[in-house]
């Protein structure tokens, strides 16, 4: 890992920087990763399977792919009403983005040269927060609370063909999901702010069995960190799990659950997604 990239939201999503910020592996701020004006209020971010491009969901209703120098190489063009959120690559190589207003997921070709197609019907969940692909092509979609208070707090499961499986796999009274990742061992890892939007909310990372939805364990940073608004999750080398939120990027040793500390810190960071760039 040579750099840590973080999307910092702005506008309605909070008083952030509205760009992609680059930090050294030691946590020192290097500045914006790119100065391209098409990057506004960025949200989801993922490294391409080949490891050569950073795919980014921009708040101006477009998806971009940037090289490791921060130059835009691919642009989906504006799609009115896209309102894209988190992003991840499907097993077939397409880049998938949650459509927050429509409650579904859009799959785009890796060249971003077509409008894409829906993986799930409109309204598959009230407000999608994060998703991941498990064994057999199963799709796990965390269903959280939207800015207007709509939604529920669970993880829904869909088959590889998009058909609904279990609409409430997880029943955890202290879960309000903001992102979801699949752990190397196949369990579901979800960042949670509960109660959502409350000044007194508790920020945790919660691990669930992918078959039963049972809570396996809860990871939490040291109280002295005052970690809040836990959004993006990312697994790194050596079994480390990174999470970005308000003002901080933190890390855990995932096999043991041990909190490793603050990796980077910046006032008003308002992080949405984190990426480890080799």
Task: Walk me through this protein's architecture.
The model has no long low-confidence stretch (mean pLDDT 95). The strands form six sheets. This protein has a four-stranded antiparallel beta sheet with strand order 3-2-1-23, with no helix packed on it. A four-stranded antiparallel beta sheet has the order 4-5-6-7, with no helix packed on it. Strands 8-9-10-11 form a four-stranded antiparallel beta sheet, with no helix packed on it. It has no helices and 23 strands. It has strands at residues 3-8, 19-24, 29-32, 45-47, 54-58, 62-66, 72-75, 84-89, 95-99, 104-108, 117-118, 128-133, 139-145, 151-158, 177-182, 188-194, 202-208, 215-219, 233-235, 240-244, 248-253, 258-265, 271-277.
Per-chain topology:
Layout (H helix, E strand, L loop, with lengths): L2 E6 L10 E6 L4 E4 L12 E3 L6 E5 L3 E5 L5 E4 L8 E6 L5 E5 L4 E5 L8 E2 L9 E6 L5 E7 L5 E8 L18 E6 L5 E7 L7 E7 L6 E5 L13 E3 L4 E5 L3 E6 L4 E8 L5 E7 L1
Antiparallel strand pairs: 1-2, 1-23, 2-3, 4-5, 5-6, 6-7, 8-9, 9-10, 10-11, 12-13, 13-14, 15-16, 16-17, 17-18, 19-20, 20-21, 21-22
SSE order in H/E notation? EEEEEEEEEEEEEEEEEEEEEEE
Radius of gyration: 17 Å
Number of strands: 23
Report the span from N to C terminus. Answer: 4 Å
Shape: globular
Q: Beta-strand percentage?
A: over 45%
In DSSP terms (H or I, runs of 4 or more residues), the helix count works out at 0
- Proportion in helices: under 10%
User: Which spans of ≥5 residues are poorly predicted at pLDDT below 50?
Assistant: none
- Spatial strand arrangement across the major sheet: 3-2-1-23
Q: Largest sheet, if any? A: 4 strands, antiparallel
What is the SS-derived class? mainly beta
* Average pLDDT figure: 95
